[in-house]
Structures are given as structure tokens and as C-alpha cells.
Amino acid sequence: MAVVDLISHLDRSVSPAHSTFHSAARLRDAGFVEVPFSSWGSRLPGKGFVRDAGLLLAWNGDRGPFRIVGAHTDSPTLRVKPLPDTGGHGWKQIAVEVYGGILNNSWLDRDLAVAGRLILEDGSTVLVDTVDPVARIPQLAVHLDREVNDRGLVLDRQIHLSPVWGLGTSTAGSFLGLVAERADVPASKIRAHDLVMYDVTPARLLGDGTLLASGRLDNQVSCWAATSAIIETASVAGDPTKTFVIALFDHEEVGSESTHGAAGPQLERLLRALHADDESSFRDRCARSFCVSADNAHSVHPNYPERHEPGHRPIANAGPVIKSNANQRYATTAETAAFFEGACRTANVPVQWFVSRNTMPCGSTIGPIASTRLGIPTVDVGVAQLSMHSAREMCGALDPDLLMRALVAVGAS
């Protein structure tokens, strides 16, 4: 079942680097050839991918218009600061920095593990995942905050979100020593790190099996669907008449402005490497191409229906959601929406629409960034979910597979 494969992906993708590591393994198993990030000058294989930290680009084919699916590997979280040892009053704590627009309270009273990358003194990178929980952010007891349920919980991100990981006096290097032990590397060899916290609760189906709860649904669902779609299209015999590309970017949650983000140069570099002809023909090829920006959408919330635009209230397990915004927070146009709807009809996949209330501005995605940079018509779509940007989110168990089928149809359209 597709949802079983997705659950495996979610549980393994505990950091952006782990996400691309797992997706790369799936691509290799499907016959894709990994190309070193520094070797784009040579001729690229017909099916291949490049990967660096939280960025992965993969392609199938080298002719015809591009069919691109963009997603992002990062999620709102707590990142470990360069010098993580802090604490007081007999408690050892971890200094963390808020990454992206987290729901602060969702990180309280959860068993937290640490995952990410360690950079060693020889320049090599080691992936680390403690797997077991190492810390927790304890909430203040109601006996010490009697009005919290009436007044609402107010958290200072600097003061109240530091996880506790032990007792005693916090000394320099002690927490990284624990992480180094779990990674089986000498702590003295670590020169820098890129570490995030995550809730160790595994992805799980809920109730009658129609709902899926997990951390990082935004946007690992889209990463899984994009990777599954390119593997599916590559399994079809014969030379592809279009070039299917997936771009799994990092840093979307903080604006995409990085070498590994959608505003960076890497996707354009790949497209130019796949196109050996002159600049004029490249521009023409891009104009005939199509991009899907795949990022989760807001399902109507049963407890807060008034927060949604009355005529555009997506629901779980009713198919991918086309996201539209007149102020260009999404890249969807009438033409790109029609193209995507046509692909969904071909795949027998239902489609929904999301538009924000006029009194409630929406967020944005990689869609406007990618379409502006490349001049490629783009549609913003995603799976409907609840609890977006929480440490643990929820979506329909059927929707990820429906999104994947729609992306396969886009690749053939």
C-alpha cells in the first residue's frame, strides 16, 4: 500500500539531509544514477540525480518540454545552536533556535530526539539520528499558572523553549559529546553541526484508517509523492517525450533564499545542463514547460470553520488542492489550473480549491519563486491537512497517493 511506503518515508525523514538520503536510496534502487554535485559539466545520464545536504534534484529524460515538480525538505522545528550547552538551577538544557513558523505550544511535553549532520575536521559529513529521545520541553504545571486555561498560554521563544536533557551543571561540549557518541564519532573531530529536534512519535494511521498523523507532513508528503512519481514515469518503457524533473529544495520555511533553496541557482543549472542547445531554444523550451509547486494546503477545520473562505473549504481524502491567490502568493494562473485539472481528469483524480479569506492573508510557497526565476508556467497544489506547522500534523491517508497519481499524469501531459 502507498500509505505504508509513505509512513516509512516520514519516519526516516527526520531532517532535510535524512529526507534526501532516503529519497536518493529509492532512486538508486529504481536505476537512477547519482552524479557528483561538482560534475555537472560532463554529459548527464538519462536517469539521474544530484544531492547535497537538504537539496535533491532528479531527472528522467533529456528531450521535449520540462515537467517539473518542486517540493521542500525542511519543516518548522527547533534547531540546535552552535554552542548548545545551557541551563541553570540544577538542570542541563539545550540552546535552540526557532526555525520557521512553528506552533510554539506543540513542542511542549514531547519526547524529542536530535538528527542532522555533523561536519568533521577533515571536511566529511556524518548523518546522525539519536532515534531515542534525548530531551523534553516541560510545560509549567497548572498549579503554578492557575489562569493558563482562561488566559491562554503565552511562550517566550528565548526563555520557554529550551529543552531539558539532564541534571547537573551544563559544561561546554557535553551535549555534543552525547550526540557524537550516538553517531559513533569522536567529539573532538566535530567542527560544526546542523542539528534539529524532532518528536519521536512514529507516523500512525488514526481511527478507521482514513487519517494519517505524523511530524513533517508539510512537506514530506510532497517529497514522497514527487519521488514516487518520477520513479513511476521512469519505469515506463521507451524514450520519454518529456523531461521529468523533481526539485526537493531546502529552506522554504524561511524564505528559500539560499544556495539550496528555490531562489538559488541549482534548478536552473540542472535545466541548462539537460539542454545542450542555444539560449533562444532554452527559453522556448521553458515556455512550453510546466511546473507543479507541491506544498500542503489547509483543510477546513471542524472546530474553526469561520477561519476559511466559505466557497473554498478543502477536506481530507477528496484529492489534491489547487491553491489560488490574486495577490500572487501562489503561482497558479487560470491556464495552469486548467492544465493540472486536465491531468487529474486523465488520472481519475478529484480536485479541490483553496482560497484564503480576504481578512486572512495566506502564506506562500516555492511556486512564485520558481516561476519568476525560470519563466515556467506554474501551479500551486497540495494535500489538505490540519495542524500545519505543529510538531505533529494530520492529513487524509488516501490523498498522498492521489497527489502522486496526479503528478504522474502531469509528467505525461
From TrEMBL:
A Pfam family annotated for this UniProt entry: Peptidase_M18
Cited Gene3D superfamilies: Aminopeptidase i, Domain 2, Zn peptidases
Needed cofactors: Zn(2+)
GO molecular function: aminopeptidase activity; metallopeptidase activity; zinc ion binding
Keywords, ordered alphabetically: Aminopeptidase, Hydrolase, Metal-binding, Metalloprotease, Protease, Zinc
Record InterPro entries: Peptidase_M18, Peptidase_M18_dom2
Annotated TM spans: none
GO biological process: proteolysis
Protein name: Unannotated protein
Annotated organism of origin: freshwater metagenome
Native organism taxonomy: unclassified sequences, metagenomes, ecological metagenomes
